[in-house]
Amino acid sequence: MKPLIAIIGRPNVGKSTLFNRLSEGKKAIAIDQPGATRDRNYAEASWNGRPFTVVDTGGFEPVSTEKILMQMREQTRLAMEQADIIVFLMDGKDGLTPSDEEIVRLLRSYRKPVYYAVNKIDGPRHDENVYEFYRLGVEPIHTISAEHGRGVDELMNAVTADIPVAEPEDEKVPGGEEEPIRIAVVGRPNVGKSSLVNRILGYERTIVNPLPGTTRDAIDTPFEREGRRYVLIDTAGIRRKSRISQNLEKYSVIEALRTLDRCDIALVLIDGEEGVTEQDARIAGLALEKGVACILVVNKWDLVEKDNSTVGVYVNRLREELKFVQFAPIAFVSALTGQRLGRIFELVDAVWAQYTRRIATADLNAQLERYIAENPVPLYRNRPNKIVYATQPRVKPPTFVFFVREPRAIHFSYERYLTNRIREGLGFESVPIRLIFRKRRRDRDVK
After folding, report:
1. Which of 206, 207, 233, 329 has the fewest CB within 10 Å, making it most exposed?
2. What pTM value is reported for the model?
């Protein structure tokens, strides 16, 4: 699992600027106005080949009674509880404040690495602004300029020193033993994730409580079923049941993000009574983004009033609201009664077979010739933009590389056409697939 690094600090100290620099994007709003970031923001990042998830947070004012600042403070506390590593950012222009001192006192209670940084030290002339921060009694204190990059290398080298360098994915278990299928149970709080895990395993593996957030840590359970090995991952909840907040649901996205990093198939649980919510769509979107195969599992189906058309209507609604995962199979179950749980494993085995399928290059190109003959590649600058050949370099998810005269000229509509034909013609109807277009080698060699 990738470690989670949370950037915290008072409003307007430059957290979003640092977040954007680490994530190499402009995902967080960074303006010179306190409170621009009200909810947490997250992104995948890496430093010198060491991968992690970085989380931006709203400004943390420990003693404010203003409602929005209180909500932002609660969000930040959630991020601090979840984080593996905390970066506490202070403002070198404002100097040390009572709020900074209060936050440091709070951080001393966390048994996890905390790195202290003074931001907005844009050059040597600002170095003297750091001296007063040593009153906090913490060391070392890193001086950085998140905007200009000064000192960020030294800070992040320290922060990521204990994070292992990412290794190439190994798709086979040493010794030729069949690898287990890693299944993550993801979804909003209180949709029945732990109940489903317990029902599948046949015993109380995790705490089940009607209050959302009961599950504290991600729990992995290996088991066998009909001679096949699986590992079931119950998604961690966000908070202890005694510390539930109205912002709880927003953090289920981060938990799904972390769990999806180490699974093959995600069971995306949806509350059958409530239907699809925005949060469900976000979690399913994360699975697609990461190339994880997913199965839409509609839970609490025993509580839904049904007639002869209920299933059909519900399937159509799911397909309409989750268009981007049209390929995902759907199962209607009840974790409470055990209704149709066997269907889940029928789908898991079928999806796994597609998710790990390899197509021989000769067979792939024979099919490709047919697809191109039926719908030729559009011209590029009045010249044929020929796809020379294709290959499948990897599985999980199935990935296909096409060597073409001008990759940038392949329109998304033609890419969608090839995707649909590969799904239908090569047996990948129920899994995500990735298409990559590269310049054909002869043209690259000429250059």
Report:
1. 207
2. 0.65
Is a pLDDT exceeding 50 seen at residue 48? yes
Same domain, 154 and 192: no
CATH classification at residue 80: 3.40.50.300
Final residue before a domain boundary, out of 301, 327, 355 = 355
Q: Does residue 166 belong to any structural domain of this protein?
A: no
Name residues whose C-beta falls within 8 Å of residue 115's C-beta, 6 or more positions apart in sequence: 85, 86, 87, 88, 142, 155, 158, 159
Banded model confidence at residue 32, pLDDT cuts 50, 70, 90: very low
Whether 144 and 240 map to the same domain: the answer is no
**Are 290 and 435 in the same domain?**
no
Between CA 403 and CA 264 the distance in angstroms is 28
pLDDT tens digits, 202-219: 754 443 443 333 333 445
Task: Provide the pLDDT for residue 308.
Answer: 83
Note whether 72 and 118 are same-domain residues.
Answer: yes
- Helix (H/G/I), strand (E/B), else coil: 148: coil
Please write the tens of the pLDDT for every residue from 160-202.
Answer: 999 988 765 544 444 456 788 999 998 887 888 878 888 887 7
Token pair listed for 199: 């029902």
Amino acid 234: pLDDT? 61
Nearest to 421, CA basis, from 410, 433, 411, 437: 433
Report the alpha-carbon distance of residue 428 to residue 419 in Å, rounded. Answer: 10
3-state class percentages of the chain: helix first, strand second, coil last, to nearest 5: 35, 20, 40
Boundaries of domain holding 234: 178-355
CA distance 21 to 7: 12
Residues 203 and 345 in one domain: yes
DSSP one-letter string for 51-110 = EEEEEE-----TT---HHHHHHHHHHHHHHHH-SEEEEEEETTT---HHHHHHHHHHTT-
When comparing pLDDT for 35 and 431, which is higher? 431
Alpha-carbon gap, residue 332 to 344, rounded angstroms: 9
Q: Let me know whether 414 and 284 are in one domain.
A: no
Please give the order of strands across the beta sheet that includes 265-271: 219-225, 228-234, 181-187, 265-271, 293-299, 330-332
Determine, yes or no, domain membership for 168. no
Mean model confidence pLDDT for the chain: 81
CA 325 to chain centre: 16
Query: Is there a domain that residue 425 lies in?
Result: yes
CA distance 140 to 115: 8
Task: Report the C-alpha gap between 107 and 105 in whole angstroms.
Answer: 6
The answer on 326 and 222 residing in a single domain is: yes
Longest dimension (CA), the chain: 76
Q: What is the pLDDT of residue 253?
A: 63
